[in-house]
Amino acid sequence: MNTLILMADELRFDLPGFMGNPIARTPTLDRLAWDAVVFDNAYTPSPVCVPARQAIAVGKYPLHTGCERFGEDLPPGAPTFARAFSEAGYLSVACGKLHHRGPDQMQGWLQRIGAECAVQWPNTYGAEGREQIGRLKWRGAEELHLAGPGTSPLSLHDRLTVDGAIDFLRMHFEGMYRRTADVPPLLLMVSLQQPHFPLLAEPELFDHYHARVRPRLHEDRPWHPALGRGALPVGEEVSAAEVRNATAAYYALVEKADREFARVIAALESHGQNLDDWLIVFLGDHGDMLGEHSLWEKRKFYEGSARVPFFLRAPGLWPRARRRENVSTIDLFPTLCAAAGLGIPTDLDGRDLAPLLQPGRRHEWVNETFCQYDLDEFMFKRGNLKYLTFGDKGPDVLFDLASDPGESANHLSDPAHAHAAAEMRDRLQEFIASRVAAAPV
Questions:
Q1: Are 286 and 306 in contact, with CB atoms under 8 Å apart?
Q2: What are phi and psi of 102, to 5 degrees?
Q3: Contacts of 263 (CB under 8 A, 6+ apart)
Q4: β-pair partners for 385
Q5: Least confident residue range of 86-90, 127-131, 309-313
Q6: CB–CB of 326/383 below 8 Å?
Q7: Terminus of the chain with fewer CB atoms < 10 Å: N or C?
Q8: Cα dist. 177→148, 168, 174, 264 in Å?
Q9: Are strands 278-284 and 368-373 parallel, antiparallel or unpaired?
Q10: What is the mean pLDDT of the chain?
């Protein structure tokens, strides 16, 4: 079975239409999600790009990968899902962002297409002091001052990525290469960099959303020192007008990403491909706070940053469904292997999602997942409870999403949660301690 993985960067879980957003226009993703298995409680392994993507690639949490922070990377030759599929005879092609910063830019893929392929500067080839194109980090309030109509460099990256994917599909399905054997199955990944900042969007799309969005203008600064890090309350460093501009631009970038995915789907269908014969995956690497709790971008364990959109579409394998259980995007690796009939490596943290895809097996699923930021901040979610620990950066926190979906109250001292909190604390500390026991991949 051919497999297509569509990925967006920094996309909130509640922005696509299929997740219930009444304002965003995402017809391509909505169409695919209609007969997919949609995971309503999917979480990133890390709310920051590099460790999240490398954890997904190897099916392990960051503290077991050797890649726990931005700027780190998997060691060369890591056992990624791309490598497993390449070794099994698939033609594996990655278009767009993988965010490898080390010397092994392929990490198991047979071919890479697109603009996002660069070793980490300035530590390579004596490049110290040279400007890195497109490598600006989040600049706080300045990003909101600049938000509005314009051209994001990441939109240019994405256009090149999708143009390359379309050209590859043409070459592949129109037989432009001389072949002496059967056409191999495809593992094709199209990984966009939008709606990641800078928050600059096409004027037509920006204007459409400017009057329609509901910017968060009255959010309190979080009381917790780690959760509140980098907060930008309206009326202090940023204005209400700037927050509206930034929100409109973000929505516009989401629609732009959907339009790019539409071009990929149209190209497949133009070559006579029946989407029902493909396994199609959609996921985000992490979310964006988008002004919630006066916060922007990622790096937090709030739902807006840690929770992601995620679905699997293969009508011939799995009936359409919506699942509420806690899952992680590191579950993708074993699930892809199982669907393709490949052996699942025994050392993965990720779990085959089969119990949630096949009616009658759901009792087998352990309803929990983890998330990590930096070396000492961790999240453990079990059912509706979310336990957070921050090392020496602040007190532990327990959120109860059933009674407090806005994550505004710490229930750690609530007697009604005492037993669950103690169990979750122990489970989380056991998980953190496993870093010492586990060798990097």
A1: yes
A2: -100, -170
A3: 162, 166
A4: 382, 400
A5: 127-131
A6: yes
A7: N
A8: 44, 11, 9, 21
A9: unpaired
A10: 93
**pLDDT band at residue 126 using 50, 70 and 90 as cut-offs:** low
SS3 of residue 63 by DSSP: helix
Distance CA 106, CA 101 (A): 11
The answer to whether 311 touches 273, Cβ cutoff 8 Å, is: no
Residue 104 confidence (pLDDT): 87
List of domains in the chain: 2-360 (3.40.720.10)
- Pairing between β-strand 368-373 and β-strand 377-382 as defined by DSSP bridges: antiparallel
Distance CA 84, CA 80 (A): 6
Q: Match 């604390």 to its residue by tokens.
A: 425
- Residues in CB range of 118: below 8 A, 6 or more apart: 101, 132
User: Are 120 and 74 a contacting pair, CB within 8 Å?
Assistant: no
Report the amino acid identity of residue 277.
Answer: D
Residue 408 CA to residue 190 CA, distance in Å, equals 36
Give the model's pLDDT for residue 132.
Answer: 57
pLDDT digits (tens, 9 = 90+) for 330-360: 999 999 999 999 999 999 999 999 999 987 7
Residue among 1, 28, 24 at smallest CA distance from 13:
24
- Given a cut of 80, whether residue 133 has pLDDT beyond it is no
Residue type, 363: H
Q: Which residue has the tokens 């979610």?
A: 381
Residue 245: CA atoms inside 13 Å, Cβ hemisphere, count? 20
**CA count, 13 A, side-chain hemisphere, 318:** 30
Report the alpha-carbon distance of residue 154 to residue 174 in Å, rounded: 30
In tens, the pLDDT along 382-395 reads: 999 999 999 999 99
Side-chain half-sphere of 41: how many Cα atoms within 13 Å? 19
